[in-house]
Amino acid sequence: MTELPTASILMSLYHRVDVTALQLCLSSLANQTRLPEQFVIIRDGPLDKALERCLDAFREQFPDRVSLVTLEENQGLIKALNAGLAYCQGDWIMRMDADDVAVPERVQTQLEFLRDHPDTDVLGSAMLEFDTDPTLPLRLKPVVEHHDEIKAQLPFRNPINHPTVCIRKSRLQSVNGYPALHYLEDYFLWVMLFRSGARFRNLSAPLHLYRFDTGTLVRRAGSLNFRNECKLRWWMFKHDMIGPLTLGLVVSLQLVLRFAPLPLRRFLWHISRQPVAPAQQTK
Q1: DSSP assignment of 93-109, as one string?
Q2: 68: which DSSP letter?
């Protein structure tokens, strides 16, 4: 059996992350059925003592695997991730958010799939969403699985759950890392990678638990998000990835999604997810 490819977990951390959430996150990484070769964690600006102690304990647990990258001032997610890329030694970059939880089989499942499907460049998965307790997820965010399905969905919505993704490092380097489009850096990245010929896949199994609450819906609304959604679709139009009808339709839909009242946006979120089966809860 061919050996599994090597992987680096890439995670950014800043001062507003709750220390309890970080502890849950790092515990989920420490308890993987197959550890990655490297954990690259970016300190995006100064952290309080509780967060630093949590990082110190994790580094003591894995002294040969943890690489801490320090940015003296908070730079934001895009710059932090791109700074961390330079320190990643694995063939594959696995994203992780500092307040989320990975299921124990995440690393092993994705690397086994990539070993068996060497034409894949970007691999995501479904994910479970929770509010405060990851053992009691609220909904399942499903995904389409195959490259052509992902391509068909790309003009209308983000088809890859960013916190679940595993990206071939050479592909990410070929487009100079994450593009500077606030809140949509991952979506824009998929678009650029598609245009460069990258192959995409998703796994239907949820390999990640994502923290999602009312604040998440609020952050995704407003004029900045709408403008950036328009910029992304205009880029796709200029590069012959979508036509004028699709451009007009998507911009109209985004106008509704970004400025609709919160109850309507909560309803749209609810119907785009699936109920969680009791077997997917761990309590």
Answers
A1: EEE--TT-EE-TTHHHH
A2: E
Report the alpha-carbon distance of residue 110 to residue 56 in Å, rounded: 28
- 155 pLDDT more than 70: yes
**Token pair of 218, please?**
């609020």
* pLDDT tens per residue, range 179-219: 999 889 999 999 999 999 999 999 999 999 999 876 777 77
pTM of structure? 0.94
The bridge status of strand 92-95 relative to strand 166-168 is antiparallel
Which among 153, 196, 167, 162 is positioned nearest to 181, based on CA atoms? 162
Q: Which residues contact 200 (CB under 8 A, 6 or more apart)?
A: 120, 121, 122, 123, 124, 147, 150, 151, 159, 160, 190, 193, 194
* Protein fold of 7-213: Spore Coat Polysaccharide Biosynthesis Protein SpsA; Chain A (3.90.550)
Maximum Cα interatomic distance, the chain, rounded to a whole number of Å: 55
Amino acid at position 32, single letter: Q
Which long-range contacts (C-beta less than 8 Å, at least 24 apart) are formed by 258-261? 258/220, 258/221, 258/222, 258/223, 258/225, 258/226, 258/229, 259/221, 259/222, 259/226, 260/221
**Which DSSP category does 5 fall into?**
P
